[in-house]
């Protein structure tokens, strides 16, 4: 798979740990930065990554900030993105199976690199549980998105 990655100044260190790990799993990484501790704004990186995912230029996205919260809030504003902020292995699996999430948010100040790698591996390797039960709920989420969409 092609995985788009983005981080702010509070997440780039974890991003730089995660990138070779994802490559070692056989995936291709597209790194949208940032790459140093200079202060930046997480929505800029969330938008960059999420645009690539909805355009089909990347199969999935991973976003990292201090908590993962800002990245997940921003990502979920992009129509077509289902982003989960994950800090544990159970949720990493469940959010693929139940929510078919296409973007994962992580908090560098919340979890260590070992847990982050395990989360990423499970999240990348778990398939969506096909079938009407979860798909109907995802369709309802999409209908909320459609209801509030601005049509020029
Ligand atoms: C940056 O200080 C921090 O606010 C940001 O990385 C993130 O945690 C926001 O949700």
UniProtKB/TrEMBL annotation:
<feature type="binding site">
    <location>
        <position position="133"/>
    </location>
    <ligand>
        <name>D-ribulose 5-phosphate</name>
    </ligand>
</feature>
<feature type="active site" description="Proton acceptor">
    <location>
        <position position="65"/>
    </location>
</feature>
<dbReference type="GO" id="GO:0004751">
    <property type="term" value="F:ribose-5-phosphate isomerase activity"/>
</dbReference>
<dbReference type="GO" id="GO:0019316">
    <property type="term" value="P:D-allose catabolic process"/>
</dbReference>
<feature type="binding site">
    <location>
        <position position="99"/>
    </location>
    <ligand>
        <name>D-ribulose 5-phosphate</name>
    </ligand>
</feature>
<feature type="active site" description="Proton donor">
    <location>
        <position position="98"/>
    </location>
</feature>
<feature type="binding site">
    <location>
        <position position="109"/>
    </location>
    <ligand>
        <name>D-ribulose 5-phosphate</name>
    </ligand>
</feature>
<dbReference type="InterPro" id="IPR036569">
    <property type="entry name" value="RpiB_LacA_LacB_sf"/>
</dbReference>
<feature type="binding site">
    <location>
        <begin position="66"/>
        <end position="70"/>
    </location>
    <ligand>
        <name>D-ribulose 5-phosphate</name>
    </ligand>
</feature>
<dbReference type="Pfam" id="PF02502">
    <property type="entry name" value="LacAB_rpiB"/>
</dbReference>
<dbReference type="InterPro" id="IPR003500">
    <property type="entry name" value="RpiB_LacA_LacB"/>
</dbReference>
<comment type="similarity">
    <text>Belongs to the LacAB/RpiB family.</text>
</comment>
<dbReference type="InterPro" id="IPR004785">
    <property type="entry name" value="RpiB"/>
</dbReference>
<dbReference type="GO" id="GO:0009052">
    <property type="term" value="P:pentose-phosphate shunt, non-oxidative branch"/>
</dbReference>
<feature type="binding site">
    <location>
        <position position="137"/>
    </location>
    <ligand>
        <name>D-ribulose 5-phosphate</name>
    </ligand>
</feature>
<protein>
    <submittedName>
        <fullName>Ribose 5-phosphate isomerase B</fullName>
        <ecNumber>5.3.1.6</ecNumber>
    </submittedName>
</protein>
<keyword id="KW-0413">Isomerase</keyword>
<feature type="binding site">
    <location>
        <begin position="8"/>
        <end position="9"/>
    </location>
    <ligand>
        <name>D-ribulose 5-phosphate</name>
    </ligand>
</feature>
